[in-house]
Specification:
Layout lengths: L1 H10 L4 E3 L2 E3 L4 E3 L8 H9 L4 E8 H5 L3 H5 L10 E6 L3 H12 L5 E6 L4 H4 L11 H12 L6 E6 L9 H10 L4 E5 L14 H8 L7 E4 L5 H11 L3 E4 L9 H11 L8 H19 L1 H15 L6 H8 L5 H14 L21
Parallel strand pairs: 3-4, 3-10, 4-5, 5-6, 6-7, 7-8, 8-9, 9-10
Antiparallel strand pairs: 1-2
Helix pairs in contact: 1-10, 2-12, 5-7, 8-9, 10-11, 12-13, 12-15, 14-15
The structure holds flavin mononucleotide.
Amino acid sequence: MAASAANSVNLHPFMVRIGNISLPAFPLLLAPMEDVSDPPFRAVCKQAGADLMFSEFISSEGLIRDAIKSRQKLDIFDAERPVGIQIFGGDEEAMALSARIVETVNPDLLDINFGCPVKKVVSKGAGAAVLKDVDLMERLTRAVVRSTSLPVTVKTRLGWDADSINIVEVAERMQDIGVQAISIHARTRCQLYRGEADWSWIAKVKENPRMRIPVFGNGDIDSPEKAKAYRDRYGVDGIMIGRAAIGYPWIFREIRHYLETGEHLMPASIGERVHVIRQHLMRSVEWKGRTAGINEMRRHYGNYLKGLPGIREFRQRLVTKSSVEEIDAVLGEVDSTYRDHVFSRWMPEMDAMRCACD
Ligand SMILES: Cc1cc2nc3c(=O)[nH]c(=O)nc-3n(C[C@H](O)[C@H](O)[C@H](O)COP(=O)(O)O)c2cc1C
């Protein structure tokens, strides 16, 4: 199966549809990431080839309470389309009402988070908690599907723990109540980020003859080779990338190029990296304000400048500066100091990045 399915994917220019959204063959998705997949970072990933992107997860309760932080996360921009807004919650009414609120900002789709493993979320019966109660998962999803005309998608995990993996059943039941695509992080809730993501379960979902909606695989994709190998081995309709894109958005174009040509693109040069860091910083300051914009950029410098000999001192300076002008001056020094540096291929340190949700 693997070879013919993979080949057929490349034959059709617009292979993947989510409701009325058309995506290129084998789309590459930017994973929803709290405090990361915000508009400034999404803009950078869009430029670097991401085909579909998702917002950070937003609390349905927070939206209903009109919490400022939740409301700001609803911000989307036409240039980044197609883009989805992700919500989470454990109460049907709150989920229905927040779906209507999300529709007012007109994203391309609405995604439901059913994978977040952290206590403060699962203790409210939300996120991955529903994997222990698929009837509740259905009720929450139905409440959302009935409350919006947007295509509804779901992001989830394999199951609560290794003894209760139920993703094949879950995917089918989600499809049957109107979910238009599903993204699967191939770990159980109890694994958190431990061990390897087991994509063989995603293949089982795809092999289910009743499955019609697109199934996107997620978990540990950190190189073009791995993306190709997992596409060919597990027959997924596309791949969702999270941690490997933090500070290296070029992973999207590198994977796309490798899937289409079998060859590697040169890693992004220092000139391009500094240019993109400056763009990212400016957008971050515009969207979040000077202090928060500067502070929240600090998690990205490490990966953007990874692999440069002696970069530590510059990185220290970048994460301690508190004005755009000062940061820009350090970036100028980095650009001139490493003008002739040739980067080796991008190898992200996945373990370093953990999330507060999922
Ligand atoms: C910092 C961080 C924040 C995250 N926030 C979310 C989130 O808001 N919603 C969600 O569904 N998953 C979230 N995740 C999980 C990712 O979407 C993804 O499923 C996970 O990182 C595995 O993919 P990867 O191996 O490509 O990183 C987050 C992950 C990280 C590292």
